[in-house]
Amino acid sequence: MKPVGLGWIALPGRLTLMRRVVWAVTGTVALLVGLQTALAFVAMNVQEDELTNDLLRREVQEIVEQILLPGLMPVGSLVTSPRVTAYLSRGQEGIGAVPVPIRDLAPGLHETRSGSHEWHVAVLDTVDGRLRVVLDATESEARVYRFGYTLLGIWAVCVVATAWIARGVALIAVGPMVEVTRSIASWAPEAAPRSGYPPDEAGMLMEAFNRFRDRADDAVAREREFAANLDHEIRTPLTTIRTDTELIALEGPLAPGQQRRLERIVASVDEIIGTTESTLSSSTGRASDPERADLRDCVQTACAAMADRAASHGLRIAIDVTADDTVVLDRQALLTVCRNLVRNAIEHAAPATLTISGGRGGLTFRDDGVGIPAALLPFVFERYHRGHRVDDGPASTASRRGLGLAIARRLCDIQGWRLTVASSVEAPDRGTAFRIEFAAQNDDAGNAAPLVRPDARTVATAG
To answer: What pTM does this model have?
Structure first.
């Protein structure tokens, strides 16, 4: 059979998905129509037998009433016609005229064969002897079999028609799936087929899935190796830079501007080291050992690293975090999350005011910027999303193109924190609020008050 369309996939020995659909539909119809055909044939045969038996009873009744005269009828053949023959016997007298197949039949109705003939026989005892009436039903039986052959032909036509229809339906319903399967199988990396899978679409998908999984596992392994190498290789030069910077600051009096720049260099080095540690933790999916940290100091440290950028973009930062409020957590992870939230406000809310408030239960980063449309809120924590997908550009710009909030969410997930966002673009509640809720053991006052009025904003949750 030649392939047609999308893949009457004519590969020898393959029970493809297309063929499975065709075989399933055709087999189901063939079974149902076959059962109906068999039932029709049986019903026809039974009905023909009943009609023949009724005719035989009428013939017997006529013979008994009109022909059989007690004591006067001779034994042997009484009536002979093309279809009906009657025989009368008294004991052994006249038994020789009775055909052998019906001699020993008990009284009642019987069906028997004599050569190529189908007989219906009625046997009854009368006052003048035993009467046997034979009705030749060969023609009736032949009519039944002709009807059966007709039904068989109809069944065969239905099966063939169903196969062609099922083929067309399969091309419409399964064809796109077959094309997708072929596309995935050919696009998957390391396209060399593996053994152990059936040579059909399901096997092709399993092979492609395993190749993708292996590729993903390799990517994760490379990411972890890269993070570990980065953490190892970058510490030495960063430590040197930090040490030299501190020594320069100690060598002699410096101008205030020079002192600020040296402090900024030290802070930037610390930020790079902390970022590499967070990257390593994120790549392995494990949180670092918690430590007791001062929330206000963490927020101030994160904001100090972003102060110049915030000022240049017109973002004013107000810190309203309870002083001397300590929590037990991964301090470096919190710094990274805070820096990413502040950076997000600089890039997307400024010019505006960012107010950072909270305590042991969590921190809230609320700005009075333009806000985020409700339709975009479900996507703010996705990688490379800034109002729409923008994942096609130089890697050097990735930090400014939708990674910050995804990193923050990832770190919160690892730490067991809950990161939520609420936003509105309508006055008077215009602006965006991010909320970090720490683990329950750090929340001695329950959840903080709602970020915004529920009737005015839309809320999205991460973690």
So the answer is: 0.48
